Automatic annotation (TrEMBL):
Lineage of source species: Bacteria, Bacillati, Bacillota, Clostridia, Eubacteriales
Alphabetized SUPFAM superfamilies for the sequence: MFS general substrate transporter
Protein's name according to its UniProt entry: Major Facilitator Superfamily protein
Topological type in the membrane: Multi-pass membrane protein
Subcellular location: Cell membrane
PROSITE patterns: MFS
Record organism: Caloramator mitchellensis
Length: 417
């Protein structure tokens, strides 16, 4: 048993310790169901009578609520502590939302679920701080790459969801998946909370924030924001974060597009996340170590290039011409695991230790603010012409790729000094 534990820790989890190790260990309990629900959710909504415009409105509402929850995430995390904040708000935003989704009947149920789920901005900020603050910088890329591979590789379970959909239909299949997801995630949050401990800087900030006045808290936040907007590399990396998060609103309708525009059966659309998961695993085990040696800037550049090519190819996929769809999926999957891993690592490393929670939450707030109209616009564009949201997605990736060349130049100039 000890030999198995040592193999898991040293070979599979890259010698991570403490909170980072625990977070990686529990992540599959979220990822297995998270991958299934997000791919099939648009089809679930359509089968319950929602229109593309209503779905777009819900996405925009989620972004609007996330603006509020994002900006309060930093102060809440610093005051309550990373560990306690993560438990409380994960139970609200995921356990609560999964339960509502499982019993949804119409638009109003999804509206309630959006309100619950909007608090994920708080738990995301606190969980990130909890997981990486006591982790050395050189091991953070290992942590983010493992979290990414677990979440992306969970798509390998999507064909199981496809079989369920084919057997009992989208609605009953999704109700079962949401219900099981509620149980799995709730057990995960409770177990992870028991095995993690508050970070050193978290303890310091809890003590600091229990003693300072509201005026001092506002000044503290203001100082963090000055750092955010005046540090060139931090701001450019944030813009890449913004654009790559924003394009998710436009790729949201992919499952619906596969069915309605390309004529793929609902039960067979799960092949796409299944193929993506396979590509993610291949990239992780064959290339991630070499990419880590190349550095975050170069790897982010490569990931965004692959993403851009993948979405561009997707624009030319026609019904029954599925080879092009497979090629597009391969490029997008490879690009996605590289982009997200090194984007998150770079973002974590270019912000200050004490400013982390506040800048994380402010960054998420700005992203949510800009995303407010994106969901509605994506739904409206899909209604006008189904391909339009994916054109916008390509443009956003192309802009991100251009910004990554600037980050690469800044990084190279620093190395040359």
């Amino acid at each position: 048993m000890n030999r198995v534990a040592r193999f898991v820790r040293h070979k599979l989890i890259g010698d991570l310790d403490g909170n980072a190790y625990v977070s990686v260990l529990f992540e599959p309990m979220w990822a297995v169901f998270g991958g299934m629900i997000f791919f099939y959710q648009p089809l679930y909504m359509k089968n319950l009578g929602l229109t593309e415009v209503q779905m777009g409105f819900l996405n925009s509402l989620a972004a609007a609520l996330a603006v509020i929850t994002s900006f309060v995430a930093g102060p809440i995390t610093d005051r309550l502590g990373r560990r306690r904040t993560t438990l409380i708000f994960d139970l609200i935003c995921w356990s609560g939302a999964m339960l509502v989704w499982a019993i949804s009947q119409n638009f109003w149920y999804f509206l309630v679920a959006v309100v619950f789920n909007s608090f994920n901005k708080v738990s995301f900020t606190s969980w990130t701080c909890l997981s990486i603050e006591d982790t050395p910088e050189d091991k953070r890329v290992t942590f983010f790459s493992l979290i990414m591979i677990i979440n992306l590789a969970s798509g390998i379970f999507a064909p199981i969801a496809g079989l369920l959909v084919g057997k009992v239909g989208v609605v009953y299949a999704m109700r079962l998946i949401y219900g099981l997801g509620f149980i799995s995630m709730t057990l995960m949050f409770l177990g992870r909370n028991k095995l993690t401990k508050e970070t050193k800087i978290g303890l310091e900030l809890m003590k600091k924030h229990s003693d300072i006045s509201l005026k001092e808290k506002i000044k503290d936040y203001k100082d963090a924001m000055i750092f955010f907007f005046t540090n060139k590399i931090t701001f450019i990396v944030f813009l890449i974060m913004l654009l790559t998060y924003l394009q998710n609103s436009f790729l949201y309708f992919q499952a619906v597009y596969l069915k309605e525009a390309l004529g793929i059966k609902e039960s067979l659309t799960s092949i796409i996340p299944g193929l993506s998961a396979f590509v993610n695993l291949v990239v992780y085990f064959s290339a991630m170590k070499a990419l880590t040696k190349e550095g975050e800037a170069k790897s982010l550049f490569l990931g965004l290039l692959l993403n851009s090519i993948g979405v561009f190819i997707f624009l030319f996929v026609k019904p029954k011409f599925y080879i092009l769809l497979a090629v597009s999926t391969i490029f997008m999957a490879a690009g996605n695991i590289i982009t997200v891993t090194f984007r998150e690592t770079l973002w974590s490393n270019v912000i200050g230790e004490e400013e982390r929670a506040k800048i994380f939450s402010a960054g998420q707030g700005i992203i949510s603010l800009v995303s407010i109209p994106a969901g509605y616009i994506a739904g409206y564009l899909y209604d006008v012409k189904a391909i339009y949201p994916f054109v916008i997605s390509f443009v956003l990736y192309a802009l991100s790729f251009y910004l990554s060349t600037i980050v690469l130049k800044i990084n190279n100039s620093k190395e040359g000094i």
